[in-house]
Design goal:
Distance between the termini: 25 Å
CATH topology of the largest domain: Four Helix Bundle (Hemerythrin (Met), subunit A)
CATH superfamily of the largest domain: dinb family like domain
Number of helices: 7
Strand content: 5-15%
Order of helices and strands: HHHEEHHEEEEHEH
Helix content: 40-55%
CATH class of the largest domain: Mainly Alpha
Radius of gyration: 18 Å
Length: 247
């Protein structure tokens, strides 16, 4: 998958979605935010990642310190600013080299790690905007499945209190799109509480089936857990996962 091209595309779609919308529109899936705040968050986030890469920041960077972190007030200027974010990130990676270590939430990773992270930030926040405006949202199945995989990396990284699954429990996610192995995920909690995941098919304590985009929106709590999904086995495992995972 060409993550850089997909980031540019999702960024453009996000901008067009809210071009003519009222900036004061509340965003229910981001409590306390308006579309204006969501827009700034997305545009500044790309620049935030670019600045960490370019400046080789070795710790969390306060987003308030990001250069050019606020959009112009006029719509056309704001959209130009938004679309400049992916370019700024691409330029920063090209400047330092794609394999240069960069700070991330998971510890040092190659600078190109941030392209995929920002891509899926854009896919999900585009869903936030669409839901706020009462508009339909769709995402190509391979991209939605990759977003699930990327999210699982984040959700299972490092120790978490409480653990996202109880010891000995297995959660199987199955995208009903024609995706092959990349559309199935086995999430396991070892006896010591460490949670891991891998692509594959198997019998879990609980299985959740549905289109990849529906699985993604449920995992990130952008849609109720039972909408357009089939839950097989112990339903409390699924609800526990949703209660304990971040965001």
């Amino acid at each position: 998958m060409d993550y850089a091209a997909a980031l540019v595309e999702q960024n453009m779609l996000f901008g067009e979605l809210i071009r003519d919308a009222d900036p004061a529109t509340p965003v229910p899936t981001c409590p306390g935010w308006t579309l204006k705040q969501l827009f700034r968050h997305v545009g500044r986030g790309d620049r935030w990642a670019a600045q960490m890469v370019r400046d080789r920041v070795d710790g969390y960077l306060d987003p308030r310190t990001v250069r050019d972190g606020k959009p112009p007030e006029d719509v056309d200027g704001a959209l130009t600013w938004l679309h400049g974010g992916p370019r700024a990130l691409a330029d920063a990676i090209a400047e330092v080299g794609p394999d240069t270590p960069a700070w991330t939430f998971l510890g040092p990773r190659p600078a190109t790690w941030w392209v995929r992270r920002r891509l899926h930030e854009a896919t999900v926040h585009r869903a936030d905007a669409a839901l706020a405006l009462g508009l339909p949202y769709d995402l190509a199945a391979p991209l939605a499945a990759d977003a699930i995989s990327e999210w699982l990396d984040l959700a299972t990284a490092g120790p978490r209190q409480p653990a996202v699954l109880d010891p000995g429990v297995t959660l199987h996610l199955h995208a009903t799109d024609d995706l092959g192995p990349s559309g199935e995920w086995m999430i396991r909690a070892a006896d010591d509480g460490v949670v891991t995941w891998e692509h594959g098919h198997g019998k879990g304590t609980t299985a959740v089936r549905g289109h990849s985009v529906d699985l993604l929106l449920a995992l990130l709590r952008r849609r109720p857990a039972d909408v357009d999904l089939q839950v097989l086995g112990a339903e409390d495992v699924w609800t526990t996962w949703l209660d304990r995972t971040p965001f």
